[in-house]
TrEMBL record:
It comes from the Bacteria. This is Secreted protein. It comes from Flavobacterium ardleyense. The keyword Signal applies. Keywords: Signal.
Amino acid sequence: MKKPFLLLVLVAFQFSFSQTETGSKQFWDKLKTYCGQSFEGKITAGATADDPFSGKKLVMHVRSCEENRIRIPFFVGDDKSRTWILTSHDNVITLKHDHRLEDGTPDKVTQYGGTSSNSGLSDIQFFPADQETCDLIAYASTNVWWITVDEKSFTYNLKRIGSDRVFSVSFDTTKPIKTPEAPWGWKQ
């Protein structure tokens, strides 16, 4: 009599645990499945003729996956200055943009981004501009970034609230490509 009851309690505990896993945890776990892989992308919104991203090869490389930090260099042609840094703390994810000069030193405009206001969903996380961003880049104080992940893609997005500014780049995660060289500021 005790064994079936104990088994039932264990099954119920496992079920309740799996049902309470947050959207941010599921999102984080999905991102980690890309670790070590690189993907080519294309601009899906916001491209203009004078946009510095237009006509360039766009590559993301999920280069570093730690327990609470994922670093994703984003290359625009030969420009290897950008790395998206995602950190997770207490079921909330923060996105920062690490910009480096070619010699590896930090750019004067770096570490801007934002923190999710809640745990989000398993396939999308929003990052409204934080105070550091507002202090660094006043015009970006109304920025909202979001990242979506699904079975076929990773998409990075930006919308500047109150303006026409929107930008999206989508990466096909079904077709990994050759890993690029290290981004600026990284040792192999």
